[in-house]
Amino acid sequence: MVKKRKQKKSAVPKKQKSAVPKKQISNVPKEQRIDVPREQRIDVPREQRIDVPEEQISDVPKEQKSDVPNGYTPEQWAEYQADPVGFCIKELSNQDQSVRFNAVDILRGCAGDAKAAIPALCDLLVTEKVTTVRAQCAWALQEICERVEPESAGQAVTPLAGALGDPDAEVRTLAANALGAIGKPAESAKPELTKALNDSSPDVRGAAEAALKWIDQQ
Fold first, then answer.
1. Rounded average pLDDT over 144-148
2. What is the pTM of this model?
């Protein structure tokens, strides 16, 4: 009686094996992966698979998403953290006045580091219709301009001199303070500051007088 030999399992040639491109391999950390039993896995036919456009895929790390403050999307918060000054400059044109106000306030807090925001703040000081935002612009320009070189600070002189004629006394006062903080480069604003010595508001008169002294002392 001839014994039957056990048939060996046929080996699949390497060229027939399915090779998964590296770009399709998940980059989920090993400890976060879920091992689904083979019998529970669902093989979705290729024609039914959905390709998500790259622009819809968020590249914000998972650990950052849980720390996102209210009012920000994860992408906005990541952009703000990467470049707060650049992000706030962009937000100065936001339709929401509270967003504009907050953006100006953050730039004020950045002080000298927000030098790049001087032109945008000057434009907003001239065009803004909301009084509180204009006042914040003048204050921000003071905090920034007194900490940067004269050439950069000089960009704000003309808009601030114009703000001495603002309908709101607080804006006029803050504009005079900012011109005083700029010092010698604000010499071209002396005619407007001299006129402000007769302002109806004592705060404006005092700020204008102090600004003229600072300009003359430097």
1. 97
2. 0.69
